[in-house]
Specification:
heterodimer, A: about 100 residues, mainly alpha, Helix Hairpins, elongated, B: about 950 residues, 3 domains, two-stranded antiparallel sheet
Chain lengths: ~100, ~950
């Protein structure tokens, strides 16, 4: 129940920011959407067992597979954030602002 | 095997040409010429067998249950292949002297010509109709580049490409129809099943499509306009493609299909009428041209019409003589184009009004041009006379089953021939005889020789035409099913064709004298210009496309995103209504709710923040809380990764914010309302979906298996890490590929953008080298603190060592390449913040391209290394180190991951973190940046 609420909140916050003017707020929105996706992945793996998924973790160990997916997803989102910010940086350089709407 | 060699050798030569061109310069054309000459020899060795009716084949499976690489050499294919290779040799010899030494075309054009030769040989040797289509299209594409589609010939080349491209599609459609009627794509099988094809309801559509294909390629009315437009090409190209070979591909296709449609009246009637009309139009329009190349182009159109009409007659004699006329035409027309090129080269003009008397300055060219023109006019004793004579004989005999068609064809061809005599003589008299009107340089003998050889070949083959009789015989049998019953000779006695020839020549001479009046007449006729119709259609298609595109293309991200979001919401809503939750949702412990309340507050902070710093702080807080959530859910690796990524994200945002205003641009009220409503809908939808579908299942089967098997298989205890580097290593390889692309993207955006790239860092205003150097070395960081600087020098090395330790232990405990790389990246950030950009810029270790590149190479080479021993990419296994230590070999892969992650962080710091003055002038939009970058030193990655 709790994880569904959190995923919903992150998705709502991310959506709102993505729809704003300016690349920086869009980038922040993508970070929140990234959080929503990774937490959704972990929640999908089941939130009942919460032990550390190491070898011999026993019956309580969490599912390692979604964790592996989420781990790379986090790093990839970082790469995308960095690239979006590079766009913001250049946009300011070349156009004078990072405002997307005026970028024609 | 032999046939495969014939097709591939020119293509290989084309690939080698640019390399050899570095050493040989324009002489590289000689290399290509020798390759083609070798093929001529190879093909001639097959001649005796082919004349006996033998067939050479080659077959190689290609696409399973699809087309195969079937090649077949019969008499028809041999004539065309010899024309392609033989004329190719002479065109290469001609190109040798045509281009200047320093002209880049001197290498480019021979390379493309060789590629074209390969494609054309593919067309004539293909025994699979789809293979024929592929080669056919390749000739269209090489033609586009040879006309100069990317340069000054763009307009003519685009027209030619689109017109022949339409024909190519028609050919594909025809191939599919015929294949489905017969059940085989093999041309020799299709020919053998002519009755099946003709009996099929697909026969008429197939004929129409084939006519479209051949008509566009061979410039038949009403598609003839592209050929004169293609004359912007260099003369070797016009000679080879647009006179001797490519334009004959359509005629070849018709000849190849002629046995299949023998007796099918739609076929005969349309070919004779279209061909005859094209022949007449081409001949009489050619007569009034002033530009020699356009004259020759229309003449080619006319000759192609003659060949098409002959194919339409369909008798053994007509089909055989059409094929031999292809050879005759190639000889005289290639020679004529070459002479036009020489005249243009040596006088600087192709305008008939300014030329004349060139027999004094260019005697060899004049001889070649005159012989070739007389052959074209059909005068004895040249080869053109023989073929024209037999063509008239075939027309007089007519079409079996339709008396009127033969008569109409005969009248049209006689009319065309009168024009042909007139324009041929006009070329000779206007260019080489009469008063000298333009100064001409002397041409080197090597430049004139290819044209002369071709012209003399026509002269020699005329009297020796009886040697061609066996060829006519076998062609008639293979294409028309019977012997033509004719012996080729100069003198057959007083026959009807001879009488017609006399008539044609005398009327042609009259027409030449009456040319000014004809010119007025032709100009007065309101001819619909195919060129203009085509251009209008072309432009209106582009306009329609643009107007459709405009409605879909908005420059506002929000406008782009809303439609997909709406679709996603509808899909989510549908599943909410149809899916019933399965399983029991576990009750969340109270600590979860506390954490989520905090996260909700942090999200509100990010959304509401007006200033950038506040937003970033709230974003960082969100990330740390999420890390805590991961820790609660049994994911220590994720928690650590999330913490490091969040730290780096905040650092990156800070780095970029130094160059951006402090507060966000304020959005309008309407936008905020729409965004809030959408956000509420998306949040509810995603949350509901999450509630429905996740958290109810236990551990997945795969996950449970990994927990049990990971250690025995890989030797690693940290199951998440073993999944990353062993079980799903290919995924991870793709993911670090994405990181590499992000790093390259940042690098390219900043250093190599078209919009004012940034040079390497330098101090504005510093003039002397010494001042610049001291400014570079003494720069301070974003946080100018002595304590931080001192701390950093102590902490940064520790962090690096820690990152290596995290990397090494990753397989067994929390850590690994991603976490280690992020830790090392954090050390770089600390260095940047405390000691400034210069420190990082000059560091030998923190470089973008070497780091990401070596990382990806290490990971990929590790993957390949297992290939020979295990047969698997990214095989995994254990390594024994000195001292009886065994480690998982996937550690090497993790080192690659480690390096790529560091490289991404470094890319951000190096390229985005460049500390320019805050009041640095903003460059004019799209214009060049300030001039100081012009003399900037070379960019360092």
């Amino acid at each position: 129940m709790s994880s569904a609420v959190m995923v919903g909140l992150l998705a709502a916050g991310g959506t709102y920011l993505v729809l704003q003017r300016g690349i920086v707020r869009t980038a922040l929105g993508f970070v929140l959407l990234g959080h929503a996706a990774t937490t959704l992945l972990i929640a999908a793996g089941g939130v009942g067992t919460r032990g550390v998924p190491f070898a011999g973790g026993g019956a309580d160990a969490a599912d390692p597979l979604p964790q592996a997916f989420a781990l790379t997803a986090i790093v990839i989102s970082f790469g995308i954030t960095a690239f979006l910010l590079a766009l913001a940086f250049r946009s300011r350089d070349v156009n004078g602002s990072d405002d997307l709407e005026d970028d024609r | 095997m032999l046939l495969a060699l014939v097709v591939t050798a020119p293509i290989v030569a084309a690939a080698l040409t640019p390399v050899l061109g570095r050493w040989l310069g324009r002489n590289v054309a000689a290399f290509n010429g020798l390759v083609l000459l070798a093929l001529v020899v190879v093909l001639l060795r097959e001649l005796p067998g082919v004349l006996d009716g033998e067939v050479v084949t080659f077959s190689q499976a290609w696409i399973p249950s699809g087309p195969s690489l079937d090649l077949r050499l019969d008499a028809l294919a041999l004539v065309f292949a010899l024309v392609v290779t033989l004329i190719g040799v002479l065109v290469m010899a001609y190109a040798l002297r045509y281009f200047a030494h320093d002209d880049p075309d001197a290498v480019r054009i021979p390379a493309l010509l060789a590629l074209f030769a390969g494609a054309m040989l593919g067309v004539v040797l293909a025994d699979d109709i789809f293979l024929l289509f592929v080669a056919w299209e390749l000739t269209s594409i090489t033609s586009f580049f040879l006309i100069g589609g990317t340069g000054k010939g763009a307009k003519g080349a685009t027209r030619a490409l689109l017109v022949t491209g339409i024909g190519g599609l028609a050919l594909l459609a025809a191939a599919i129809l015929i294949e489905s009627a017969v059940g085989s794509p093999t041309l020799s099988v299709i020919t053998a099943q002519a009755a099946t094809v003709q009996g099929s309801s697909l026969a008429v559509p197939a004929v129409i499509l084939l006519l479209l294909a051949a008509g566009t390629k061979s410039a038949q009315v009403p598609f003839h306009f592209w050929l004169p437009g293609a004359m912007v090409a260099p003369t070797p190209v016009s000679t080879y493609l647009h006179a001797a070979t490519m334009v004959k591909a359509g005629v070849y296709l018709l000849l190849r299909m002629a046995p299949t449609f023998d007796g099918f009246m739609v076929w005969h009637v349309s070919l004779v009428l279209i061909g005859g009309a094209t022949a007449v139009l081409g001949a009489w329009v050619a007569l009034v041209q002033r530009d020699l190349k356009r004259l020759m182009a229309y003449s080619t159109v006319s000759q192609l019409g003659l060949m098409t009409a002959l194919v339409g007659l369909g008798t053994p004699l007509a089909l055989g003589i059409a094929t031999i006329h292809v050879l005759a035409h190639a000889l005289f027309k290639a020679a004529l184009f070459m002479t036009v090129g020489i005249v243009d080269h040596e006088t600087g003009t192709r305008d008939l009004d300014r030329l004349g008397g060139l027999r004094h300055a260019l005697p060899l060219t004049a001889a070649a041009g005159t012989l070739a023109a007389l052959s074209m006019a059909g005068l004895p004793p040249l080869l053109g006379f023989i073929t024209k004579e037999e063509a008239l004989a075939a027309l007089v005999k007519g079409v079996p089953g339709s008396a009127w068609l033969g008569t109409v064809g005969l009248v049209l061809i006689v009319l065309a021939s009168i024009g042909t005599v007139a324009y041929s003589l006009r070329y000779v008299s206007g260019t080489f005889f009469g008063p000298v009107r333009t100064e001409a340089h002397h041409a080197p003998v090597g430049f004139e020789l290819p044209a002369l050889l071709l012209a003399v070949a026509g002269l020699v083959l005329g009297p020796l035409s009886s040697r061609l009789t066996p060829l006519l015989e076998v062609l008639g049998i293979q294409l028309g099913g019977a012997s033509p019953g004719v012996k080729l000779a100069l003198w057959h006695g007083l026959t009807v064709p001879l009488g017609l020839s006399v008539l044609v020549v005398s009327l042609g001479l009259l027409a030449l004298r009456a040319r000014p009046r004809i010119e007025a007449l032709v100009d007065g006729l309101a001819r619909p210009s195919g060129e203009r119709v085509f251009d209008r259609a072309h432009d209106s298609v582009l306009r329609t496309g643009a107007s459709v595109g405009r409605t879909a293309s908005s420059h506002a991200l929000a406008t782009y995103l809303l439609p997909p979001m709406a679709v996603a919401l509808v899909l989510i809503g549908r599943s909410l209504l149809t899916v019933t939750p399965a399983g029991v949702l576990p009750v969340s412990p109270p600590l979860d709710w506390v954490l989520i309340a905090l996260i909700a507050g942090a999200i509100a902070g990010v959304v509401q923040a007006r200033s950038r710093i506040a937003a970033v702080a709230a974003l960082g807080l969100t990330g740390f809380l999420i890390a805590g959530w991961f820790a609660l859910h049994g994911a220590p690796d994720l928690a650590l990764t999330q913490l490091l990524v969040e730290t780096l994200t905040v650092a990156v945002v800070i780095v970029v914010f130094r160059r951006l205003p402090d507060t966000f641009a304020r959005s309008g009220r309407i936008r905020r309302r729409i965004a809030a409503a959408t956000a509420a809908l998306v949040g509810t939808g995603v949350g509901a979906l999450a509630w429905l579908t996740v958290g109810r299942n236990g551990r997945s089967d795969v996950g449970s298996r990994f927990l049990v098997e990971a250690e025995p298989i890989t030797g690693g205890d940290n199951v998440v890490n073993t999944i990353l580097v062993d079980f799903r290593a290919l995924d991870t390889l793709g993911e670090i590929g994405v990181l590499l692309i992000a790093a390259l993207g940042i690098y390219a955006l900043v250093r190599h953008s078209e919009l004012g790239p940034l040079g390497p860092p330098r101090t504005l205003g510093a003039t002397s080298d010494a001042a610049r150097r001291s400014d570079q070395y003494l720069g301070t960081g974003a946080i100018d603190s002595v304590i931080l600087r001192l701390m950093t020098s102590a902490i940064a090395p520790v962090m690096i060592v820690t990152s290596l330790w995290l990397l090494l232990r990753g397989h067994d405990a929390v850590g690994g390449g991603f976490i280690g790389g992020l830790t090392a990246g954090s050390a770089a950030v600390l260095l940047y913040l405390s000691q400034g950009h210069q420190r990082l810029w000059q560091s030998r270790w923190f470089r973008t391209m070497p780091t990401v590149g070596s990382g990806l190479i290490i990971a990929a080479v590790y993957g390949l290394a297992g290939l020979p021993t295990s047969g698997n990419f990214l095989a995994g296994g254990k390594l024994t180190l000195p001292g009886d230590l065994t480690v998982a070999s996937s550690l090497i892969f993790d080192v690659g991951v480690f390096l790529v992650v560091i490289g991404l962080v470094v890319a951000v710091l190096r390229h985005l973190g460049q500390g320019l003055a805050e009041d640095e002038p903003v460059a004019a939009r799209g214009g060049p940046r300030e001039p100081s970058t012009a003399d900037a030193p070379e960019v360092v990655a």
